[in-house]
Automatic annotation (TrEMBL):
Cofactors named for this entry: FAD
Designated name of the protein: Oxidoreductase
Protein family according to the UniProt entry: Belongs to the FAD-binding oxidoreductase/transferase type 4 family.
Organism ancestry: Bacteria, Bacillati, Actinomycetota, Actinomycetes, Micromonosporales
PANTHER family linked to this entry: D-2-HYDROXYGLUTARATE DEHYDROGENASE, MITOCHONDRIAL
Residues annotated as transmembrane: none
SUPFAM superfamilies membership: FAD-binding/transporter-associated domain-like (SSF56176), FAD-linked oxidases, C-terminal domain (SSF55103)
Length: 456
């Protein structure tokens, strides 16, 4: 036992310092199985004070830290590169009573999205961000990556939900700003700086989150369209005509085939289509008639099926939400999460197959995502790991294509380790230099998530 492990045991209790390889293993590989590394040990603090003690012990020993929430990240930011102390925040799972007057709630970083949703709904409110990994994804990780999901159209990304944060800096200093004031112009917004910083500036331990009205009536339409251009025509009509629109998602026939085989789902329509769009409306009263009226007047609609009962909503959403699991069951994907202006979306989708085929002829690309934001999840399967056919080549080719279409290399998953070498495609040298100066000021020894976000 080294001094550091002893210090960590005093900080969190011996049962929560995992050194045995079998106990560490579930923390050391990411959800996609693409990123894996050996941690020096896994530490599981249960309070902010314990996080401070862990960080101070690591800082004194010069030991690097990698921070992990629900381990649902997709860019390798929450698993070790090799030799770091892995700090799991799963035990910071406390929820305070909902403040219904402010429509806010304070929760621990380790609270899952599902637990937060259940808690908010029991108080007659809801949380504005939702995503398929809700049962495992945690508030801390979602803030660190500025997660998006399926309701960004209505409520914005995770940053927009943050009314306050408590976070621990690399030297153990605790920044606490959990008051949740609606207006507060007293200088730099440190909470918003920490949100989206991927654990490189501070460890989020608690969050004060905004809540939104709980809308009891939902209607979902799964719509068959000819392709991306028609999907955008449908989106335009939906945005103009449906004040209650809460989600607009897209997927393509290759994804539908995979999802159907994985979930043993029936074909949603008699005839195949070029693309499929999921539209959801949420309101105080049943929005089905509004959706039906819009669909009946939109020329882009080839076919559509609409549901508003619980089972029907789940059934239609499953065609979209099962994509991630179905893809993962088919192999270890190279996941690229990109965003382009809507005017560039059709060209990007059209140019993608040839771009990938040039560097990985045997690869297949499964594309799906958040239509409203122009945010596509490009999942490349069988990109291969031999020298002629490498995942890095695919990443390079696709991210350059995205940049040429004025897009970003990360829309909502973050940069992590997966995309840090390509950061300069989305950020100017001046921006990267400013980010490095901020990092150096808050974490001068580079102990928090080294190698994540900023290229070495
Ligand atoms: C999604 O929108 O389903 C998530 O971002 C997960 C993924 O891209 O696989
Ligand atoms: Zn997504």
């Amino acid at each position: 036992m080294t001094d550091l492990e002893g210090e960590l045991r005093s900080a969190v209790g011996a049962a929560h310092v995992l050194v045995d390889p079998d106990l560490r293993a579930p923390y050391e590989t990411d959800w996609t199985r693409r990123f894996t590394g050996t941690a020096r040990c896994v530490v599981r603090p249960a309070s902010t004070a314990e996080v401070v003690a862990v960080v101070r012990a690591c800082a004194a020993a010069g030991a690097a830290i990698v921070v992990q929430g629900g381990n649902t990240g997709l860019v390798g930011a929450g698993v070790p590169a090799g030799g770091e102390v892995l700090v799991s925040l799963a035990r910071l799972a406390g929820v305070e009573p909902v403040d219904v007057v402010e429509a806010q709630v304070t929760v621990g970083a380790g609270v899952t999205l599902e637990k937060l949703q259940t808690h908010a709904r029991a108080a007659g409110l809801d949380f504005g961000v939702d995503l398929a990994a809700r049962s495992s994804a945690t508030v801390g990780g979602m803030i660190a990556t500025n997660a998006g999901g399926i309701r960004v159209l209505r409520h914005g990304s995770m940053r927009a939900q943050v009314a306050g944060l408590e976070a621990v800096l690399a030297d153990g200093t605790v920044l606490t700003r959990l008051g949740g004031l609606a207006k507060d112009n007293t200088g730099y917004d440190l909470n918003q700086l920490v949100a989206g910083s991927e654990g490189t500036l501070a460890i989020v331990t608690r969050a004060r989150l905004r809540l939104v009205p709980l809308l009891p009536a939902r209607a979902v339409a799964l719509v068959a369209v000819a392709g991306t251009e028609a999907a955008l025509d449908l989106l335009t009509a939906a945005r103009v005509q449906l004040a209650t629109l809460s989600a607009a998602e897209i997927f393509y026939p290759e994804g539908l085939d995979l999802v159907r085989a994985y979930g043993r789902l029936p074909a949603p329509f008699g005839e195949p289509a070029g693309a499929y769009v999921v539209l959801e409306c949420a309101a105080g009263t049943d929005p089905t008639d509004d959706i039906l009226t819009m669909l009946s007047t939109c020329p882009a609609v080839m076919d559509a099926t609409v549901a508003s009962d619980r089972a029907g909503l789940e059934r239609l959403w499953s065609y979209r939400e099962a994509h991630t699991e179905a893809i993962s069951a088919a192999g270890v994907p190279t996941k690229l999460d990109v965003c382009v202006p809507l005017g560039e979306l059709t060209a990007l989708v059209a140019e993608l197959p040839e771009t990938v085929a040039r560097v990985a002829p045997k690869a297949t690309v499964i594309t799906f995502g958040h239509l409203n934001e122009g945010n596509l999840h490009l999942n490349v399967l069988d990109a291969g790991d031999d020298s002629d056919n490498r995942a890095e080549d695919v990443t390079d080719a696709v991210l350059r294509l995205v940049a040429a279409h004025r897009g970003t290399i990360s829309s909502e998953h973050g940069v992590g380790r997966a995309k840090s070498p390509w950061l300069s495609l989305s950020r100017t040298p001046e921006e990267i230099a400013a980010m490095r100066r901020i990092k150096a000021a808050l974490d001068p020894d580079g102990l928090l998530n080294p190698g994540v976000l900023l290229p070495d």
